[in-house]
Fold this sequence. Notes:
The complex is a heterodimer. Chain A is of the alpha/beta class.
Amino acid sequence: MNKQVELKNRKIIASQHVKLGQKNKMGQTYTDVNDIFYKAKQTANFMTGSEVIRAAIKVASVGTSVAYPITPQSEAAALIGELYAEGYVDEYFRGESEFAVMGQCAGSAFGGHRVFTTTAGPGTLRAMENFPMWAGSRLPIQVCVTCRGINSPLSIQPDTLEMHYLLETGMLVWHAETAQDLFDYILKGFIVAEQPDVHVPIAVCCDGFFVTHTKDTVDLPPEDLCLTPYDPYRNPQPVMDMETAPIRMMRDPFVMKSNYISYATHASWQQEVKAAVERSRKHTIPLLDGLIDEENTDREILIVGSGTAVSQSREAIRLLEAEGIKVGLVKIKTIRPFPYEEIRRATKNAKHIFVPEFNVAGWLAREIKANIPDNERVYVGPHVAGGMTMPSEVIVEEIKKHLGMEVAARGTLG
Amino acid sequence: MSRMNIRISGLGGQGAVTAAHLLAMAANKDGKFSISNPFFGAEKRGAPAESYARIGTERIYDRGELVFPDVIMVFHPQVITMQKSYTAPFYSGIKENGLVIINTSADLLSDEDRKTLDDLNVAVFNHDATKLALEIGKTELSTNMAMIGACAGITNIVTLKSLDGAIQDRFGKRYVASGGTATLDEAIKKKYAKKEMLLKANNDTIIEGHKIATEWAKTQNLQLVEV
């Protein structure tokens, strides 16, 4: 399950879709994902994360998108509505609530459409029951989760606690650091999730505001190329409804009982969903150039993070470097599948491993601690929660304090 | 590596978010590295709103609330007088040799504020941006233009040419930042018969703010970070 896959010369299976090379009604040419990213000319743009979601969906050959407003994804949902009006998305409508939206997404995916939706924070939790249902039904729906606080007191600011809840849903969970990642992950995410040996839903997560509302430089491929559409005939199982074998969820009462047959059914099915998530590695590694990025992992002090925490850490590493303290960095791109083997290898020389996180739980530190030897090396923090910013100076201070170094007073804060 | 961190505190509807985006877009056009992001609660006119523009000579990763600014712009006197702000006092975290630009017709600083800022060698420019906006832009909605003009005039962080280009990009095309912004965009577009008139009025307000601030800067011994 943790076998390494050779990176070089490995590309995801190229699309053999019957429409490859043809034009859609908007004049875009259906193109293999490898060609979109690695052959087409990329042009730099300066735009917000919300605009990036629009740019990705414009070339994603999406069948259905269902919207429901919640900050900070509302702008992206509205922009997809514009794409629908322009003709780039086949179906678009507003649901009654996030719960309804995810159910409607399931219906559209059962019907054979490529489905995209966006949600955030409390919306993610309101919709939660549907996510393992999607996975169990093997629907390769993509939800873009623009993380925000979920707790009371209320916060609309970025907080990654909701990702913790997604970890055992059976979905692929990827975490974008920047708007560029977000664009790439949305398009590549469809392709990986829809592979017949994967065919599970995917949550492409980013930190709300820090990515969605931040203007940043993003390289985009030409708009006249688009992904080949979802091919429902590559679904590895018969379309499932309440009547069709092999599931017949309500008609076949054995799955609803507490006997060995029902246990065997559930266990094997849930294991198969987990195995499908693991099988996504071989497609993800070449497309994302590995499940992690490494910088100077031969150093004794390492920061391991995902999302915006990586960006803040990059700044902290610059500050530490100026003081002569050398720190390496591991960026985790996929939380599910979790890069167990890669993390073990990347952290093998480290004496101190810091895991900065934008949530109160420290779930990423927990995942890392559970999977590396000598896990007392892991320092769970620094943490912020409830949408607070994590200034790079705070990361620097916490690292220095933990290492027993002197921390100078700074600024006029407070 | 050098970087200028700009923090803007204002009230919802004043265009603080748009101002940060415009500065970052202009810096990007000037070939600098830049990033901008807003910080606000439920979108509501008159509620505190902050935004940040970071501009530098190398790629910028830092994002989120700007805790240690070089430049602070206060878009509304109530940020100071009524504490309508996410940061208290409004100059919290300002770096040594920094700059504060306040949209006001009267001096709002207490003796304590003044002493703190003096000790850090922070220059304070009281700039009647709303008056300028009403005179030239013919609407107080151009206050943000008068402010970014002043910022550019003092800091030279962006050129007037690239600010003009940023405004063309921002208001010349269809743009959705949020429902609230879309409503305000419509409101300001209705004030002018043609979009070109809106773009020109905004640019004129920037230029005048730039001019006034440049004159002021000549009278000061500023030691601002250069990018």
